[in-house]
TrEMBL record:
The chain crosses the membrane at residues 67-85, 91-109, 159-180, 192-213. Keywords: Membrane, Transmembrane, Transmembrane helix. The keyword Membrane applies. It comes from Undibacterium rugosum. This is Uncharacterized protein.
Length: 222
């Protein structure tokens, strides 16, 4: 393939540059412990890359690790591991819940719509070894890569029936009750210990409503 800029024939795929410039080596080293007489051998693996290879890396797929951490922050106060008596618990609890609700669809979209397009773009990309320009061969973006919003995500994955709306509505009422009561009476956030039942029921009902809506959507697809 000729470079469209300088017309040189000396071009390479980015994937080929990455593979050629990446070296993986393994070996055994000698280690000494912190205490007298502690020593032994350790196996090591070293991955080295050239500058060209580093610049030719494939795009990365987003992972759910931050979501899992936020879920732990969200769930731990509800199971009462020594923190349910603190008035500060609802703050990270609510922040973690908001983060999960906001970030999960974005990560899902990146992994299932954006990432495949990025990999297709990467696979069609070549670099001219003479003028160092990067170019693509017969590539057009799929418009679906931009077509994401909360409204579309919900429409594509959930069908809210009367049952699912009822479950989620009752769950929301259970979740809001402690906050309304505490702000009206003492103008503060509620103790989770004092409203563990309400928050637990709210979580179960809202989760059941979401699952019901998801199953309803799957039935329409089938």
């Amino acid at each position: 393939m000729n470079c469209p800029y300088c017309h040189s024939e000396h071009t390479k795929k980015l994937s080929a540059i990455y593979q050629a410039g990446t070296t993986v080596s393994s070996g055994t080293g000698f280690a000494i412990g912190s205490q007298p007489g502690q020593f032994g051998t350790v196996n090591t693996t070293i991955i080295s890359r050239t500058i060209d290879a580093e610049n030719a890396k494939a795009p990365e797929k987003m992972n759910y690790s931050n979501i899992f951490v936020a879920l732990i922050v969200w769930i731990v106060p509800m199971i009462g591991l020594g923190m349910v008596g603190s008035r500060f618990v609802p703050v990270p609890f609510l922040l973690a819940m908001a983060y999960v609700i906001y970030q999960f669809p974005a990560i899902y979209h990146q992994r299932n719509s954006v990432y495949p397009e990025l990999m297709r773009f990467y696979s069609s990309s070549s670099k001219c070894m003479k003028c160092h320009a990067t170019f693509q061969e017969n590539f057009e973006w799929n418009p679906a890569i931009y077509d994401w919003s909360w409204k579309k995500f919900i429409h594509d994955h959930f069908l809210f029936t009367k049952t699912s709306v009822l479950l989620m509505g009752i769950g929301a009422a259970f979740a809001l009750y402690p906050f309304v009561l505490n702000f009206v009476l003492v103008h503060s956030l509620p103790y989770l210990a004092g409203y563990f039942f309400e928050f637990s029921v709210a979580t179960l009902l809202i989760t059941s409503g979401v699952i019901t809506a998801k199953n309803a959507k799957l039935r329409t697809i089938v």
